[in-house]
Design goal:
Length: about 290
């Protein structure tokens, strides 16, 4: 196995096959990010979502997808021009990939208030160059969804972060306040009847535990875009708390716990989850 991949694996505590899969997936995510950085992708886009929170802000759960948003909306954006940079980076560490692509339909009947028509979606599948590669079988089951919002709402704020592995590189990403706005948007707008996303709730607790303030401008614009609130609606922190309290009264917390369990080490941390718990901590939101 490539020495850099071994070095990156050393930072993980591996107790079972699920730990191995999550660790290898996260390392591949970081290699992909490094390739995008080398290719200049972050000159026009920013990293956001649960994986950004995990890699750069020490969220203690694994995350599956890579989510990005353009800094300036561009409906003609062509992500394929960066595929070569991703491929070259992966090849340098003994990995190949296959990319399958599709563009989400704006009239999707799956949580249409949350999914966007202006999102480029790609599935990355990986396999080693060497048949004797130690993680050959695991790699066959690893797929990473890669999405870019090419027409994002205004109001996001950013910061630059640096990583030393797999090689030194720079990444532009949403700051914590903007990431929290995206997470609250997901809690309010995701179709919970299809799947109760416990990962959203887990991240919400993480933000509040770290006293992160929400980017209200970005959140308002995202909620308007999703037709969750009217363009002229009054929107402030008190209104937001009321919306969240209403949502927390509707959630199936057993389903939410089942969703998050494969991604966390300490499952006892979610025993307290209930509508009373989430309504109570929402008072801390600012």
């Amino acid at each position: 196995m490539n020495n850099i991949i071994e070095q990156m694996l050393d930072k993980y505590t591996i107790k079972n096959i699920n730990d191995e899969i999550n660790a290898l997936k996260e390392i591949i995510q970081e290699i992909v990010l490094s390739g995008l950085s080398r290719g200049g992708f972050f000159d026009e886009a920013a990293f956001y979502g649960g994986t950004a929170l995990r890699i750069f802000y020490k969220l203690d759960r694994f995350s599956e997808d890579l989510d990005f948003a353009l800094i300036t909306p561009n409906k003609d954006f062509d992500l394929s021009k960066y595929f070569n940079s991703i491929e070259k980076e992966l090849n340098a560490y003994g990995l190949n990939l296959v990319i399958s692509s599709k563009q989400k339909s704006s009239d999707s009947n799956i949580s249409s208030a949350f999914l966007k028509g202006n999102t480029l979606e790609h599935i990355l599948k990986f396999f080693p160059e060497n048949e004797n590669f130690k993680y050959n079988q695991i790699l066959k089951d690893i797929k990473i969804k890669f999405e870019v919002d090419i027409n994002p709402p205004l109001g996001a704020t950013y910061e630059l972060q640096y990583k030393l592995l797999p090689s030194p590189h720079q990444i532009r990403l949403y700051d914590k306040e903007s990431l929290l706005a995206g997470k609250i948007h997901a809690i309010l707008c995701r179709n919970w009847q299809m799947r109760t996303k416990g990962r959203d709730l887990y991240d919400y607790v993480f933000f509040l535990s770290n006293n992160v303030k929400v980017n209200l401008e970005l959140l308002k614009n995202k909620l308007i875009e999703s037709n969750y609130i009217d363009n002229n609606a009054d929107f402030n922190i008190d209104v937001l708390k009321e919306l969240l309290i209403k949502k927390f009264n509707e959630i199936d917390y057993d389903d939410a716990k089942n969703d998050i369990i494969p991604f966390i080490k300490d499952v006892t941390s979610i025993n307290i989850w209930s509508k009373e718990f989430f309504i109570s901590i929402t008072d801390k939101l600012s």
